Amino acid sequence: MIFKNLKYIVCLSMVLFALNSCKDQAKIDAEKKEMENSIAMDEAKIKADAEKAKLEAKKKEMKATSIAGIADKNEELSTLLSAVKAANLETMLSEPGNYTVFAPSNNAFEKLPKNMSIAELGKAENKELLTKVLQYHVVSGKITSDKLVDAIKGANGKYAFETVSGNEITASMKNDKIILKDEKGNKSEIVLGNVNASNGIIHIINDVLMTK
Questions:
Q1: Which alpha helices (DSSP H) does the chain contain, by range?
Q2: What is the pTM (predicted TM-score) of this model?
Q3: Could you read off the pLDDT of 133-163 as tens digits, one per residue?
């Protein structure tokens, strides 16, 4: 009888040990899984942060090399940049896109009559006019000098194209120079072409173009 009881106790102990061993293994497996998940989450976060930093750096580089960014670095375009900021067009010329800008130099703005000077156009009451004047110098899409010359030749010497203001500019050639004529009949010459930007191209001109 004692032997049977002892045998029963031994068996019970083995069963309890086995159960405890199973519980311990389950706990170990759960902790291992939790650790693996934590490591995976940390790795995913590190990767996401690295991608975000890469995108931010790329965005910063694109902004620095954008049309507005290039104008900011060029002393000859400081007046244009001030006008762009006053008209709240800096964002458009800083963000990704594809534009051609015929950029009047500082000297070009100095030629304007007093009533059309940047000091006057920069006033709050003239913001709409300033915006229209600036948009008259911007074209959707990238037009290099070579493309413009080909278009002029293909249009029998006079090529008209629309700007983002909805008004037209007419381009022609004078010897090897590209001449732009505005809607008032005034002419401006491209003095420096094909200044590449991350969101388009800039052609510096020597007179401000005006719409009717």
A1: 2-64, 67-73, 78-86, 90-94, 106-110, 118-121, 127-135, 145-154
A2: 0.74
A3: 999 999 999 999 999 999 999 999 999 999 9
CA distance 43 to 49: 10
The tens digit of pLDDT for each residue in 7-17 reads 555 555 555 55
All residues at 6 or more sequence positions from 98 whose CB lies less than 8 Å from its CB, including other chains: 140, 141, 142, 199, 200
For 5-38, give one letter per residue: b (16+ CB within 10 A) or e.
eeeeeeeeeeeeeeeeeeeeeeeeeeeeeeeeee
Q: Are 82 and 121 in contact (CB under 8 A)?
A: no
Tell me how far apart the alpha carbons of residues 143 and 65 are, in angstroms, rounded to a whole number.
18
**Could you report the per-residue pLDDT of 47-91, keeping only the tens digit for each?**
777 777 767 766 777 788 999 999 999 999 999 999 999 999 998
Compute how many other C-beta atoms are within 10 angstroms of the C-beta atom of residue 4. 8
How do beta strands 200-205 and 187-197 pair? antiparallel
Q: Is 2.40.10.270 the CATH number for 68-205?
A: no
